[in-house]
Amino acid sequence: MSKFWSRTAREAEPYVPGEQPSDVNVIKLNTNENPFPPSPLALEAMEQSINADLKKYPSPTADRLKAVIAEREGVDVNKVFVGNGSDEVLAFAFQAFFDPNEAIKMPEITYSFYPVYANLYDIPFQQIPLQNDLSIDVEGLKRSVGGVIFPNPNAPTGLALSRVEVESIVAHNPNQVVIVDEAYVEFGAESAISLTKQYPNLLVTKTLSKSHALAGLRVGYAIGDVALIEGLERIKNSFNSYTINRVSLAGAEAALADEPYYDETLQAIVKTREWVTHDLEQLGFWVAESKANFLFVKPNGIGAETLYQQLKARGVYIRYFNKPGLEGYVRISIGTDDEMKRLIDIIQALIS
Ligand code: PMP
After folding, report:
1. Signal peptide span per the entry (predicted)?
2. Ligand 1 atom at minimum distance from 156 CA
3. Does residue 142 belong to any structural domain of this protein?
4. Are residues 293 and 310 in the same domain?
5. What ipTM does this complex have?
6. Which of 81, 90, 113, 214 is the pocket-test mutation for ligand 1 (most atoms within 8 Å of CB)?
7. Which residues line ligand 1 (CB under 6 A)?
């Protein structure tokens, strides 16, 4: 706390990001990054973008990137918004669509950035407890008016709602924006993007961080009705019109164009997720049915925090949440087969 801080800085309750250890030899399974490198075509495009043109500002409208996204998602280009990671897209969406005089709803256990944004922008929020099986309470999110935000699949559980369930939430709130955060949707859940044609109150956000192995690039996007996109553009242009830099634009466009690499790496991650789930279950752990690139796990024979610490001592980072409701669980990102074999070997040794 400093006397120089504004009220906003004093009252902020910032998000605490997962550890980013500087030791390159650790096995990093704590922040849901993609274990594979970005597409070689994306790396090449970025190298080529490092040239004298960097003296110029990037395109404030990012039209080329938006066109690539529109093509991929099967929507008109004026239904696409792009931002510096989906975190930024979500922050803009909170400002653009939610007001301080009406509470929004979100699951009680969910991506912890949502309450941070809500607090930052003075938006009251109601946290709806998960059901006993840890799934999102669809009826709970539909109770009373107010905007809604939830991830599908949810984080950190990895459990997904069906498109029909998502639609029922969107249809129930026609006068409020419903944000569906699809950061992990590509790993096995049903996307709600096709519903944006029908529902002007639906905003779907996505990211290249996970599915396209570009967390370091910071590129995310939103798809929604033209009026929602215009709202986001108003907020963005009141903050930083050049929010995606030239190198990121080049990398993102090339990565999205490299479908074969995307398909191959995605399938590998899903396959690994399946055998790791099986092996953890064999060891007596409870594992939520994940549609994401991570597993939400309740260890057996060892406490969650101890498991996290013991793995860390052996150079394997997973996520332990020291938060009410999450104490008994850890979240493990899906790494390469070799990384996951090492994880399983260590766990086996720890509990035997
Ligand atoms: N939504 C969810 C549910 C997430 O877990 C994350 C990543 N931590 C994000 C959004 C943000 O992703 P990014 O800013 O890298 O696009």
Report:
1. none
2. 5
3. yes
4. yes
5. 0.99
6. 113
7. 85-87, 111, 151, 155, 181, 183, 207, 209, 215, 220
